[in-house]
Amino acid sequence: MNRQQRIPVNVSTNRQTTNDINNNIKLDYMRQILLLFTLIMISNHTWSQKYQDGGFKSLTDLKNNTPEYKVDFNISKRTMADIKAWGGNDYKIESADQTVTKKAIKKEIVGIVKNDSLYLNGIPIVGLIWYAKVEVLGKYCFLRPSFPVNRKIQRELGLNDPQYGYMFGAVGGAIQGSQMAVKRIPLIYNIETGNKWLLAESNILKILQEYPDLLADFEKESDKKNEDVLISYLVKVNALEE
Description:
Blueprint: H1 11-48, E1 54-56, H2 59-64, E2 74-77, H3 80-86, E3 91-94, H4 102-108, E4 111-114, E5 117-121, H5 122-126, E6 131-136, E7 140-143, H6 151-157, H7 165-168, H8 177-181, E8 187-190, E9 196-198, H9 201-208, H10 212-219, H11 227-241
Antiparallel strand pairs: 1-4, 2-3, 4-5, 5-6, 6-7, 7-8, 8-9
Helix pairs in contact: 1-11
């Protein structure tokens, strides 16, 4: 009886090819991240030059670059333990200058600029104390404030909408105590109007309606839910608004 001939398979070559593909994907991803980081740095530097250091009592003051409090603020990032115990946003702000009261910092000042960074008061945005740092600065800011406890704000942002389930999992009453305190939401904030939206495909599409060329580019993206892709279009819009 003739034995069936076996066709030799070079397993090592196949593995090498797979590894090469995976390495190329990782390299492309790293390049995209580096490019996005560079774009954010350039955009933030350009926009930060519009603001002088100090505390601003309104978005109009920010737009006009007229801080009410031209004093030095001490900004510290809160510990996870502190956030779990007391809730609120990531940055605590104080001032040794007696002309700035604790009440003004907590409730009256909407934004503080220091060393080219903008920190926004969380109370007008998500109803919770202390400040969130703006990661992308421009007309359309990007920041990660606390997950709002107030149900009305949750509804305004669409946090109970099933389409955002992939971002947060269980929301609303299903999140309790310290678990809710440490949750953060990816948020777009219009620094001129105070309008705010979750960073999501549907909301980026709304913004891009005024920018047809960018809209056409976005429609070609293969992964429109990818956070880096969404942020990159905020950066591009901000560049057009400079």
